[in-house]
Amino acid sequence: MTTPKTTEEKCWAITASFEGCGYTGLTGNFDGQGWSWGLLSWALGQGTLQPLILACHEAGPETFRRCCTVDVPNLGETDLSEQLLATCRKPVAEAVASAAERCDAGKRPLEHWRRVFENLGSEPGFQAVQRAHGRSYMDHARAIFAELGFKTERGLALCFDIAVQDGGVKAEARAAFEREAPSGPEEQRLVALAEAVASCAVPAFQDDVRSRKLCVATGRGHVHGRDYDLERDFGLTFGPVVEAEG
C-alpha cells in the first residue's frame, strides 16, 4: 500500500480500513442496512448510499451502465443499472427490503451484485464521486478539530473517525470530555475524547467505538481483529497536520 502523504489522505485511509470496504467493497444485510458500500460504508438503511449511486450515474451514465452489466445466473450478460437506480429511488425501508432480497441466506450480497459494485468502485471517476460525497465528513471533522483546539495529525484523524462513525460529538460526550480534560497535553485530551465518545455510544457498539477511537488517539490498537500501528501503517504522526500543496 502506498503511504498517504497529506493528513486528510491518512484520515481517509485509516477510517476506510476500519470500515472495511475500500472503494469497491459491498456488505450485505447483516446489520439491517440492506447494502453498504464504498470508502465510508454508505448504507441504504441510513439513506446515504442512494444519493451516492445516483451521483455516480449522473457523472457517467454510459460508464455506469457498463459497470452494471454482468453475468447473472440463468440470464447471461444483463444490464442491472435500471434495477439499481430504481432501488435507490425508493423510500428507505423499501430500498432495504429490495437489497435484502438480493442477498443470500447468510445475508451476503449475491455474487452478480457484488461484481456490479466492484466494477463501480474500480472506476476512477466514481472514486472521485465517493471522495466528494465524503467531503462533508471531513468538513465536520475540521470543525470539531478547530473547536477543541487540537493541532496534530492524530487529532484530525480522531475527529474524522468520530464524524464518520458517530456523526459528531454528542452533547453528553462533549460534557464528559470537558469534565475530564478541558485542558492539558493534547495526547491526554485525545484519549479523554475517545473515552467520552465511546461511553455515550449505543451500548451494543461501545466496545467497537472505543477500540477505534483509542487506536487513533494513542496511535496503536486492535480493531476488528487487526493490530494497528498508525505511523507504521499509514504514516500518521503526532506532528502537525500536513496539508495538500497549493
Plain-language structure description:
The protein is mainly α. It folds into two domains: 20-133, Chitosanase, Chain A, domain 2 (2-Layer Sandwich); 135-234, no CATH class. Helix content is 57%, strand content 9%. The protein is built from 13 helices and seven strands. The protein has helices spanning 7-19, 49-59, 61-67, 81-88, 92-101, 111-122, 124-133, 135-147, 153-166, 171-180, 186-199, 206-218, 230-234, and strands at 26-27, 36-37, 42-43, 69-72, 76-79, 220-223, 226-229. The strands form three sheets. It has a three-stranded antiparallel sheet. A two-stranded antiparallel ribbon has the order 4-5. β4 and β5 (76-79) form a beta hairpin. α2 packs across α4, α9 packs parallel to α11 and α11 runs antiparallel to α12 (206-218). The protein is elongated. The model has no long low-confidence stretch (mean pLDDT 94).
A few lines on this structure:
This protein has 246 residues and is mainly alpha-helical. It has 13 helices and seven strands.
